[in-house]
């Protein structure tokens, strides 16, 4: 039943399916995803129109088995993969249920094989892979980071639930002086400002070097909020070009830490 391990470029096993389901659902806003297997672990990346990019990171130590002959990269249909894994979602959340996942990939042109094992019963899924598209290299150079805020996810949930969904844009204001941290929208209900405390108990870290105001499409911000349901903390960073990064810290049931990152490009001219 199990593929020949030695013929595969990548063999990985997770003892708990819940981890990968939560991570993949959090970045599942487009049909396809590009998967990278490196000595650091597994990275799954989704990109939209070259202006937003999301990645889920599963470090090597989270896996029970992670054997890699060489770095691999392939594209899969994320919708189908999530649909397959979610067939076991109710079982994952049952007390005492054990659902494990194994992943096998031989290399270019080969499908990726996913084995899901529950109480000795094995389900075999084979997904076609495609040549990956070229992705933009979204990253924040440390010397260009202007502002960094680390906060508890419940605070961000509360804020975003109050946003006017009829607004096209969301404006982010960060400053070392009052009002410090403000989120604004302009929709059918008029202009709305939400000011956040920079030193409250739900703010773990507030580092602001200069005043910066940038606007982003609300349709780009909303997918980035999907990770709030499984994350413990979120780091919000912006650079001198207005590039916005949400980094979510996700704790597994075993106490390991995985990460989800969303990069969102600013709207250059909000009046256009």
Automatic annotation (TrEMBL):
* CDD domains assigned: PCNA (cd00577)
List the subcellular locations: Nucleus
Q: Superkingdom, according to UniProt?
A: Eukaryota
Key word DNA repair present = yes
- TM spans (from-to): none
> What InterPro entries does the database record attribute to this sequence?
Cell_cycle_checkpoint_Rad1 (IPR003011), DNA_clamp_sf (IPR046938), Rad1_Rec1_Rad17 (IPR003021)
Any one Pfam family here would be Rad1
The UniProt entry's GO biological process terms, in alphabetical order, are: DNA damage checkpoint signaling; DNA repair
**GO CC aspect terms:** checkpoint clamp complex
| Record keywords | DNA damage, DNA repair, Nucleus
Coarsely, its chief localization is nucleus
Presence of keyword Ligase: no
Family according to the record: Belongs to the rad1 family.
PANTHER family recorded: CELL CYCLE CHECKPOINT PROTEIN RAD1
What name does this protein carry? Cell cycle checkpoint protein RAD1
Q: Which organism is it from?
A: Apis mellifera
């Amino acid at each position: 039943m199990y593929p020949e391990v030695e013929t595969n470029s990548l063999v990985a096993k997770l003892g708990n399916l819940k981890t990968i389901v939560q991570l993949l659902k959090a970045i599942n806003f487009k049909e396809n995803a590009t998967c990278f297997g490196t000595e650091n672990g597994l990275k799954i990346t989704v990109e939209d129109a070259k202006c937003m990019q999301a990645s889920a990171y599963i470090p090597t130590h989270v896996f029970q088995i992670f054997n890699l002959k060489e770095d691999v990269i392939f594209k899969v249909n994320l919708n189908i993969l999530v649909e397959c894994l979610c067939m076991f979602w109710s079982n994952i959340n049952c007390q005492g249920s054990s659902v494990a996942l194994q992943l096998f990939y031989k290399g270019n042109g080969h499908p990726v094989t996913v084995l899901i094992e529950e109480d000795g019963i094995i389900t075999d899924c084979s997904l076609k892979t495609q040549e990956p598209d070229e992705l933009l290299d979204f990253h924040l150079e440390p010397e260009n980071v202007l502002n960094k805020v680390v906060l508890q996810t419940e605070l961000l949930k509360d804020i975003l639930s109050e946003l006017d969904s009829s607004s096209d844009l969301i404006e982010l204001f960060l400053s070392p002086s009052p009002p410090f941290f403000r989120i604004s929208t302009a929709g059918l209900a008029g202009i709305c400002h939400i000011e956040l405390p920079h030193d409250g108990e739900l703010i773990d870290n507030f580092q602001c070097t200069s005043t910066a105001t940038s606007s982003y499409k609300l349709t780009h911000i909303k997918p980035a909020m999907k990770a709030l349901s499984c994350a413990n903390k979120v780091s919000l960073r912006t650079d001198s070009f207005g590039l916005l990064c949400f980094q979510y810290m996700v704790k597994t049931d075993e106490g390991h830490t995985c990460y989800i990152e969303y990069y969102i490009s600013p709207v250059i001219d909000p009046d256009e």
